[in-house]
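[step 3/7] inverse_fold.run input=structure_tokens len=249
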């Protein structure tokens, strides 16, 4: 006779499977709530209206201001809240181009890594396995990306047209190693972040004139062409592999 007292199958597995989605659900919930409640606080107008109080606090509590700014930046990126560009400008405004860029890049990298880990934990491993076991064009695309991960990761970060949130998720679904993701994120976002941070460092004059910053500066030829040049360097190994037929460089 069969054992009729066996524990119902997959019960614990189901609970465990559902718990994997908790980080992603939390990020989505906070992002939706933040989109409606924080947009007035994470805005250029808010920065302009509170600039004197922010500068005074920075001057009297530099370390606390720096750590607080870094924590806020991580939260903005990690929860995909509105105001990423304003946060970058604020970093330049409060801490100057050099330190502002360092804080901005560090905060963005840590925040992006949190999204990466949440997406991988919730969906990335399963989706990656499905893509690996797929057939036809989808499998070829994944194999092509796998063979050129470094180049593809840097291109995602360097090209301004790729939304930052999308660039955070794609690698998680393609089983990219964590160290490659972190390194390519940190160094790949430096050019664009440096540009916006430098704009933020000059906001004092912009405020004095009652103007708004020109965020379209990144698309001006003297800014965009060097970034595209770096993107071309990133894709060069892919071209060499295609020509030589080598698997690894």
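[step 3/7] decode complete -> sequence:
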């Amino acid at each position: 006779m069969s054992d009729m007292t066996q524990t119902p199958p997959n019960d614990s597995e189901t609970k465990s499977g559902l718990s994997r989605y908790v980080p992603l659900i939390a990020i989505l919930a906070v992002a939706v709530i933040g989109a409606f409640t924080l947009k007035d606080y994470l805005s250029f107008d808010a920065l302009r209206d509170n600039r004197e109080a922010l500068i005074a606090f920075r001057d009297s509590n530099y370390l606390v201001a720096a750590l607080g700014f870094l924590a806020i930046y991580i939260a903005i990126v990690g929860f995909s809240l509105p105001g990423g560009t304003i946060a970058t400008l604020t970093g330049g405004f409060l801490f100057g181009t050099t330190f502002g860029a360092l804080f901005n890049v560090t905060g963005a990298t840590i925040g992006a890594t949190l999204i990466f880990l949440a997406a991988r934990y919730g969906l990335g491993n399963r989706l990656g396995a499905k893509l690996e076991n797929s057939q036809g064009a989808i499998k070829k695309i994944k194999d092509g990306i796998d063979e050129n991960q470094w180049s593809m990761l840097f291109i995602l970060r360097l090209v301004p047209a790729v939304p930052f949130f999308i660039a955070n998720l794609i690698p998680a679904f393609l089983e990219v190693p964590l160290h490659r993701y972190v390194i390519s994120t940190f160094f790949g976002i430096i050019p664009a972040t440096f540009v916006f941070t430098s704009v933020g460092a000059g906001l004092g004059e912009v405020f004095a004139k009652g103007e708004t910053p020109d965020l379209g500066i990144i698309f001006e030829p003297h800014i965009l062409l060097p970034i595209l040049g770096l993107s071309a360097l990133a894709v060069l190994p892919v071209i060499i592999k295609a020509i030589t037929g080598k698997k690894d460089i």
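[step 4/7] annotate
The CA atoms of residues 217 and 223 lie 7 Å apart.
The chain has one domain: 20-244.
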